[in-house]
Amino acid sequence: MKKITLLLFSLLFSTGLWAQKFAYIDSEYILGKIPSYKSAQEQLDKLSEQYQKEIEERYAEIDKMYNDYQAEKVLLTEEMQKKREDEIISKERATKDLQMKYFGKDGLLFKKREELVKPIQDQIFNAVKEIATDGGYAIIFDSASSTNMIYTNPRYDKSDEVLQKLGYK
After folding, report:
1. 8 A C-beta contact, residue 168 and residue 34
2. Which of 3, 39, 99, 162 makes a 20 to 30 Å CA pair with 71?
3. Do 23 and 155 form a contact (C-beta atoms < 8 A)?
4. How many degrees, rounded to 5, is the angle at CA 37 between CA 153 and CA 123?
5. Does residue 139 sit in helix, strand or coil?
6. 140: number of CA atoms within 13 Å, CB side?
7. From CA 8, how far away is CA 18, in angstroms rounded?
């Protein structure tokens, strides 16, 4: 009796899995077709470049301070040496703090990315959700971010459909 129940349960479970509909999208392809995303990326790249340049200039200044200190060290008193070392350390600490302010987990660049890109990603998500609901899809994968999708049949690619929902085709 247990074997029959187990067999019946297995049969029902496997049939339920086969009844599910799956599709996929390529988010990189979709984002590449959206002009506002390209513009946002360009803005973020410029901002990142600007921040990076400022950080590099500060580190160059610190290197110069250190090299000058090393060259003059023999001429300085212990008190003056300590003062210069503290200045260098303080400047380096301030530069690292600035670097975290710009590039850290909750830094200015992250916040700007969230401000510019998140609305676009939300639109894509809503379009995918609508396609999934209308098409009766249980799961829609993203082939751009999933490394374990070995093969995908183009017939199930809904990327162009997402772009149409967003008004880009």
Report:
1. yes
2. 99
3. no
4. 70
5. strand
6. 24
7. 16
Length of the chain, in residues: 169
- Both tokens of 104, joined, read 């850290």
Q: Is 56 helix (H, G, I), strand (E, B) or coil?
A: helix
Q: 56: closest CA among 104, 22, 102?
A: 102
Are 131 and 162 in contact, with CB atoms under 8 Å apart? Answer: yes
pLDDT tens figures, 50-72: 999 999 999 999 999 999 999 99
Domain boundaries, the chain: 12-166
- CA–CA gap between residue 88 and residue 81 (Å, rounded): 11
Q: Burial level of 47, CB count in 10 A (0-12/13-18/19+)?
A: middle
Give the residues across from 139 on adjacent strands: 22
Contact residues for 33 (Cβ-Cβ < 8 A; gap 6+): 163, 168, 169
Q: How many CB atoms lie within 10 A of CB 23?
A: 21
Rounded to two decimals, the pTM is 0.72
Task: Give the C-alpha separation, 24 to 142, whole Å.
Answer: 6
pLDDT digits (tens, 9 = 90+) for 2-54: 444 444 344 444 544 456 788 888 899 999 999 999 999 999 999 999 999 99
Inter-axis angle of helices 108-135 and 35-72, nearest 10: 150
